[in-house]
Design goal:
Helix content: 25-40%
Distance between the termini: 63 Å
Strand content: 15-25%
Number of strands: 11
Order of helices and strands: EEEHEHEHEHEEEEHEH
C-alpha cells in the first residue's frame, strides 16, 4: 500500500511579520516547526505501515527551508519526501493550496491512501483535506478518531461527530483527516537521522505538475483575498492595588464595569 501524508511547516512563534500589501505571513527567517496536527497523521500512517506494509511519502508546499519538516519525517520512519516549491505558489488561499497539493500528489503518485492532520495552526481552516479529495475525485472522511484496520480494499474508521461516533468503511483510493490524539506521535530517531542524512528530497515546481497554467496557483488562483490581517497586540501594562478586601472589591467592580466587562442582568 502506498500512503501519502500531507505535512506543513508552520511558524514556531506568534511573533510573525505580515506583508502589508498581500496580507500573507512573512515566513523567511522565522523560527518554524512541523504543524502539530500533522504529527498525528504521520503516526497513523506509520502504524498502518507496521501492520500492513507499504511505503509512506510526505508532501509539503513551501519555501526551500520546508525541507526541514521532511527531514524530521524521515527521522520518524517515512520513506520518501516531496517538496512543492515555486514562487508562483506563494500567497495561495485554501483553495489554491489544495489544488497545488492535488497536482503534486498526482505527479508523485498514485497513492492508495492520503492522510492529513485535522488543520494547521497558522490557518486553522480545516478545509484542505476535504478540498484536496474533491480535486482528486476520491472519497474522503474527516474527524477520524480511530482506525480499525484495512479489509477487502477498504479502510474502516471511527469518525468523531458532534453528538456521536460514526463508523465508516471507505474504499481505496481515499483520503482521511485525523483528530488530535488518535495515536501518541513517536519521537524522531537520531539513528534514522544519520541513516537518512543523504536521502534525496524530490522538489517539484509548477513546470513539473500536470497543470502548468500559473493562473490556477498562488495569488492568481486564490478566489479569496485577505482584507486585513494583523498580529495580536501584546500589552505588558500592569498596576498594583493595595487596600483592604472591601475597598479592593469595590475598585475591581468599578474597573470591570467601566471597561464594559460586566453586563447588567435585566
Amino acid at each position: 500500500m502506498k500512503t501519502a501524508v500531507c505535512i506543513k511547516q508552520v511558524p514556531g512563534t506568534s511573533q510573525v511579520e505580515i506583508d502589508p500589501v498581500t496580507g500573507v505571513l512573512k515566513r523567511d527567517g522565522v523560527e518554524s516547526k512541523m504543524n502539530p496536527y500533522d504529527l498525528y497523521a504521520l503516526e497513523t500512517a506509520l502504524r498502518l505501515k507496521q501492520q500492513y506494509g507499504g511505503e509512506i511519502t510526505v508532501i509539503t508546499m513551501g519555501p526551500p527551508q520546508a525541507q526541514a519538516v521532511i527531514r524530521e519525517a524521515f527521522m520518524m520512519g517515512v520513506d520518501h519526501g516531496v517538496l512543492l516549491s515555486d514562487r508562483r505558489f506563494g500567497g495561495a488561499d485554501v483553495l489554491a493550496t489544495s489544488y497545488t497539493l492535488s497536482q503534486g500528489l498526482q505527479a508523485a503518485g498514485p497513492f492508495d491512501l492520503i492522510i492529513c492532520g485535522k488543520q494547521t495552526t497558522d490557518g486553522d481552516t480545516a478545509q484542505v483535506g476535504a478540498e484536496l479529495a474533491e480535486f482528486l475525485k476520491i472519497p474522503h472522511v474527516t474527524n477520524v478518531c480511530k482506525v480499525h484496520g484495512i479489509e477487502a480494499e477498504t479502510l474502516e474508521a471511527d469518525l468523531d461527530q458532534p453528538l456521536s461516533i460514526a463508523t465508516a468503511k471507505i474504499p481505496f483510493p481515499c483520503l482521511i483527516t485525523v483528530e488530535k490524539g488518535i495515536f501518541e506521535p513517536r519521537l524522531p530517531s537520531y539513528k534514522r537521522k544519520k541513516e537518512t542524512a543523504d536521502r534525496q528530497i524530490r522538489i517539484l515546481t509548477l513546470d513539473d505538475l500536470p497543470d502548468k497554467d500559473p493562473v490556477h496557483y498562488g495569488l492568481n488562483g486564490s478566489p479569496t483575498q485577505v482584507k486585513r490581517i494583523f498580529p495580536p497586540e501584546n500589552s505588558n501594562t500592569r498596576e498594583m492595588w493595595e487596600g483592604n478586601a472591601a475597598d479592593l472589591g469595590e475598585r475591581l467592580f468599578r474597573f470591570l464595569d467601566s471597561h464594559k466587562y460586566l453586563q447588567q442582568l435585566r
